[in-house]
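Q&A log
Question type: sequence-to-structure
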Amino acid sequence: MSEYTTGELAKLTNISVRTIQYYDKKDLLKPNRLLDSDRRIYNDADVSRLKLILLLKNLGLPLSAIAEILDSENSMTVLNLLLEQQERALKTQIEVSKNKLKLVEEIKRNLPQIDQVSIKSIADIDKIMNNKKSLRKVHIHMLLWGIPIDLIEIGTLTWGIIKSDWTPFIIGMIIVAIGATLLTKYYFQNTNYICSNCNAEFKPKFWAAFFGVHNSKARKLVCPNCGKKDYCVEVYDEKRSIKSA
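Response status: OK
Response body:
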């Protein structure tokens, strides 16, 4: 069995000699034997005990509690429970960190839109992120309803070409027109726009928005607040959800 002086033990466990001396004073770690010169000698069992002390200390336990655990007849059972508790805490911490990372990534993805809005606090960012989620739901609803409309149009057109029977196509186009009108109305009822110049949120006139040059994130409109015509960022109309509630 290997033996270690106080200095060697300190170097082996990456702590100071003073710390080992302090643990000795607190009766946490006694040397295996003393030399005539009062030098303390530790063995492998002492090394294991010291590593256990350091582990428990890192878990946040005070030295008095560590001493009780080490001297307990059920020390291994207590230690196992502590480790399980620490494992759960670390897993929770990891999950929280993952959620924070997702939030950071979401904010980074939406920086072009967030940059157009006056942000005064974390609450503002949270509000923007919730708004983006609501707007995404609007887009999903439109997509889900838009697919059947497209199928009706394509299906009846194909039928007309193959069978030379255009009656289903005419009826289908009437249904498509009604569906497209309802979808368009739903879309504009649930969306507002934020002016990139003055940050005012507004709902444009239907035809101005309908014919406005746009991309997937913004639409070129005249702000009723400052009168400037520029690309305005699309947002969910939160007042609409309040009315629904």
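Response note: The mean pLDDT is 82.
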